[in-house]
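Table S2 (text version). Query chain:
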Amino acid sequence: MKHTTENKALTLGELKKSGYQSLPVKDEIRKNLVARLKSGTPVFEGVLGYEQTVFPEVERALLSRHNINFLGLRGQAKTRMARQLIHLLDEYIPVVEGSAINDDPLHPISRYATDLISQKGDATPISWLHRSDRYTEKLATPDVTVADLIGDADPIKAANLKLDYSDERVIHFGLIPRAHRGIFVINELPDLQPRIQVALFNILQEGDIQIRGFKLRLPLDVMFVFTANPEDYTNRGSIITPLKDRIQSQILTHYPKNTEISATITRQEAKIATDQTGAIEIPEIVGTLIEQIAVEARSSEFIDQKSGVSARLTISAYENLVSTVERRMLINGESTGRARMGDLLGILPAITGKVELVYEGEQEGAKNVAFGLLGKALRNKFAQFFPDPELAKKRKNEPNPYQEIIAWFGKNELELLADSDVKTHHAKLMEVPGLKKLVEKYNPRLDAKDADLMMEFVLHGLAEYSMLGKNVLEDGLAFSDLFNSVFSLDNYEDGENK
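Corresponding structure-token output:
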């Protein structure tokens, strides 16, 4: 995007005549936030589910001119919120031209800027810095040094300028001084070594820096934003207590409160190709099942809950689901396609790489854990559309609505292949007597195009309630009588028995 600086002062003299007054960065953010709140303009865009929880806390912190620490598990939009804070900065600010640390022409702090203004006075050239250039982000890693963040003496600069090492002009400024008059973000703060965290004390408390042996005080003007996982998330490190004490507001983030919000986030963030968007339909119930898998994962005994289950799991799963349908369309020469229940097998690779397993989970195996989560999601949602199979079985005075279906599987097996075309898939489902009648009875307002989907849902639901057996084949699923079937993932596990 092209940013224009037309009709703006080009020298210090012109800037003074214009009546321009500079503000500290936190006051600048506060001023623009006040204007947004008065006008009803949202501070954050594309971040959902925080309207009544996180956003008010962030706004209160900014109004208080606080440095902020976003604390939460992975995939909770911490970095996204930090990046959107640049919209609360003024579009342009004046800087002394050539300054490495964005010196304010009216309040210079570096040796370079003060010397230049001393020499040229009102003729000192100034340039205008866009707000997008006032945001600096650093991922904290164990190899980050004080020199990276604060600065150090530069021997090459000393040699070229023929200066002594005691001259502050030989300093090469680090990332934080270069973020003067802007926003500086450190992601994954606990990963920063404790001795490096100590180097931030003065900056946060006093607003100044010290570089090695230089008798130098730079009163930096920086808005600090940190992101971190809870300290007990890993053994890699933690935020030292004195540093936490200097971060005025700690804001706790969270996962979506319900599957509706989660599903909206997933569809918003999923990267779907243009030709996929027009040709492929994902029924609401299938999308909801993807979100339910994440819900189940966040309470699973096999998954490390301190690690969390990122929203990226459902986003990747949704993308995989769309591509599973597309692959079948391409194989069968179909121009359109709809997701089936069996297509959920295609999302398992998106789950296995995004959950951190505890010891019991490792013993179970990543794919078995993923398949188990899918099963729990199916079971959880099944009772919202059909009678609870366990309760139906216990009601002795009422006929079991699933009896005809279960009886048929006593002598028959049904294979639903992943790549079968629409007609073949429908014909296979119609082989099961009573299946369509059951769907129509308990979902009378069901759209005709969802009939096959719900018929398949019944088979999956009965399998999860241990009324039918379900086996994973190399090219699909097989449903059969429970006692004649050995539940396994052998084919899916590349021949390895679990």
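Notes on Table S2: Residues 387-498 form one domain. The chain has three domains: 12-252, 256-382, 387-498.
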